[in-house]
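Hi support team,

I've been running sequence recovery on a batch of backbones for a student project. Most finish fine, but this one hangs at about 90% for roughly twenty minutes before it completes. I'm not sure whether the input is malformed or the queue is just slow. I've pasted the structure tokens below so you can try to reproduce it. Let me know if you need the job ID as well.

Thanks,
M.K.
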């Protein structure tokens, strides 16, 4: 079994100084294995206190920034000898 990918939660504090949101960054190998793209919409569900479920939305729409980034990357690869 592959070793687990450990990540820390990041707390975002509001003006009052209290934590208002938590963010979890996914390690790139885990995101790649799940075929996740930047800005892709996902939702979460709590299974129990120790497990959560990440669910991809049915439609995988690309944002304008994603389309431009892919075109730029393709142009760079074409320019290489």
């Amino acid at each position: 079994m592959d070793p687990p990918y450990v990540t820390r939660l990041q707390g975002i504090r509001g003006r009052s100084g209290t934590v208002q949101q938590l963010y979890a960054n996914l390690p790139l190998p885990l995101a790649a294995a799940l075929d996740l793209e930047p800005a892709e919409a996902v939702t979460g569900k709590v299974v129990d206190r120790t497990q959560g479920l990440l669910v991809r939305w049915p439609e995988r729409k690309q944002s304008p920034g994603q389309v431009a980034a892919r075109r730029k990357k393709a142009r760079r690869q074409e320019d290489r000898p």
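--
Follow-up from support: It reproduced on our side and the slowdown came from queue contention, not your input. The chain has two domains: 1-27, 37-79. No action needed from you.
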